Amino acid sequence: MNGSQVRMKRGACNVLVTSASRKAPLVRAMQEAVRRINPDARVFAGDLDPEAPARYVADGFWQMPRITDAELPALIQGCHERGIAVVFPTRDGELLFWARHRAALSEAGISVIVSHPEAVERCLDKLAFADFGREGGLAVINAATTPEAVGAGPYVVKERYGAGSRAIGLDLSLDAARLHGKNLDAPIYQPFVPGPEISIDGWIDRGGSVVGVVLRRRDRVSAGESQITTTFRSEALEREAVRALETLDLRGPVVMQAIVVNDTMRIIECNPRFGGASTTAIAVGLDVLYWSLEEAFGQGLPPVFKRIAGEVRQVRLPTDLVLHDPDF
Fold first, then answer.
1. How far is Cα 86 from Cα 81, in angstroms, rounded to an integer?
2. DSSP letters for 206-275
3. Residue 170 CB contacts under 8 Å (≥ 6 apart), including other chains
4. CA separation, residue 14 to residues 77, 88, 164, 167, 195 (Å)
5. What is the pLDDT of residues 85-98, one digit of tens each?
6. In this predicted structure, what is the pLDDT of residue 316?
7. Nearest Cα residue to 56 out of 318, 321, 316
8. Does the pLDDT at position 30 exceed 70?
9. Is the predicted pLDDT of residue 1 greater than 70, yes or no?
């Protein structure tokens, strides 16, 4: 009995958004997507923090155990108890766990929307990503463990693993780059490439075909995420993005960062997951959550990207949520 048959036998149709934290827009978008498939489906917000704010917009909350190999049986049991058929990981630090255990979870009737372990690991290691991209003929920005290995400078210095914006140093001299690197756990050095930074949202089906990409300008950035972002079109950049995503052998929703130089892109990194502002791409027709769920449930026809004619700007603002007669 395969994973889809197990899910159908159990009648499981709920979705778990892991590391939900403050990701209320993602939870709401997931609710809209899954209810187009099954109006009775519920979206659970999962997090270690019992007071994760996203719990208050989800249909249910699960204070999850830690995402470790030892906890895999408990995670499977917890999914079964809640009728969860699909897991949607959202944090870089957990992607490799879910990717490595995807087959075991499928046997238990639980689909995980995540890329293959090798592709995930390559994207999480920024040095390996740069090396792979260069060998594959992609326009990636070079990276090395010493500043001298990437040229005369100026330099960008960042952590090799984890969020690229954490403790990043930009446009640094050689001495400043060396000093900055001493404060990082595993520093890598890149040449500083001036130019506007963009995000590219994409979705890749199970066969490895890129169904569509959406380019976004990062008009205002805070803590590494776009607070104001605007979509735009460029056939040349879109072709480059599609080629890069196909070469990286990813699956499902992804978001890539790049610098635009003379109407070409220099790729910085690629996150093999849904991005903080990726709901913008959904607004122009890149229906990444719905398509991912259709694949997970084994339903629907092959997706077709029907982009809207115009562009959209998304402004991410904090909002208040008032709960009347809350069940504390």
1. 13
2. TTS-EEEEEEEEEEEEETTEEEEEEEE--HHHHHHHHHHHHHHT--EEEEEEEEEETTEEEEEEEESS--
3. 156, 192
4. 14, 11, 32, 37, 43
5. 999 999 999 999 99
6. 92
7. 321
8. yes
9. no
Q: Which pair of structure tokens corresponds to residue 178?
A: 């060396």
| Residue 204 and residue 248 in contact, taking contact as beta carbons nearer than 8 Å | no
For the chain, the C-alpha Rg in angstroms (whole number) is 20
| CA-based nearest residue to 90, from 131, 58, 138 | 58
Identity of the residue numbered 91: R
Query: Residues 216-264: pLDDT tens digits?
Result: 999 998 877 889 999 999 999 999 999 999 999 999 999 999 999 999 9
CA dist 84 and 110 (Å) reads 7
Cβ neighbour number for residue 123 with a 10 Å cutoff: 24
Q: What span, in angstroms and rounded, lies between the C-alpha atoms of 287 and 301?
A: 14
Residue count (the chain): 328
pTM score over 0.90: yes
